[in-house]
Write a structure and sequence with these properties.
The protein is of the alpha/beta class and about 120 residues long. It has a single domain, classed as HesB-like domain (Hypothetical Protein Aq_1857, Chain: A, Sandwich). The chain is about 20% helix and about 40% strand. The protein is built from 2 helices and 8 strands. The protein has a 5-stranded mixed β-sheet. Strands 1-6-7 form a 3-stranded mixed β-sheet. The radius of gyration is 17 Å and the shape is globular. It starts with 15 loop residues before the first strand and ends with a strand.
């Protein structure tokens, strides 16, 4: 009889998943910045016409309570308060006839505004 031992691996799950197109675009933008210490910080802030708005920027610092993951070769940082509101979300980049830009698809959003940048 064979028994399997249980091995516990401690790993923080990704709060927000970047699509391949988002990873490619963020990688390109990071290369233009020329600073290998930068990470993509994704956050949720109070504001916007629906209650919360998304914020994304490059950051060289992180706190002990941040959720830090690497997707592709992009380091992604999310603060703990935003992590609860972004759990299961995905970040996509599209470049088409209607314009180019990032879009967050968030299963936790119950209502979004017409501009697409705020939610509740």
């Amino acid at each position: 009889m064979t028994t399997m031992s249980s091995v516990s691996i401690s790993r923080k799950p990704s709060v927000i998943t970047l699509t391949d197109s988002a990873i490619t675009k963020v990688t390109d933008l990071l290369a233009q910045e020329g600073n290998d210490a930068l990470a993509l910080r994704v956050a949720v802030r109070p504001g916007g016409c629906s209650g919360y708005s998304y914020e994304m920027f490059f950051d060289s610092e992180s706190s002990d309570d941040d959720v830090v993951t690497t997707q592709g070769n992009v380091k992604v940082v999310v603060d703990s308060a935003s992590a609860e509101l972004l759990k299961g979300a995905s970040l996509e980049y599209s470049d088409g006839l209607q314009g180019a830009g990032f879009n967050i698809s968030n299963p936790n959003a119950t209502r979004t505004c017409g501009c697409g940048s705020s939610f509740s």
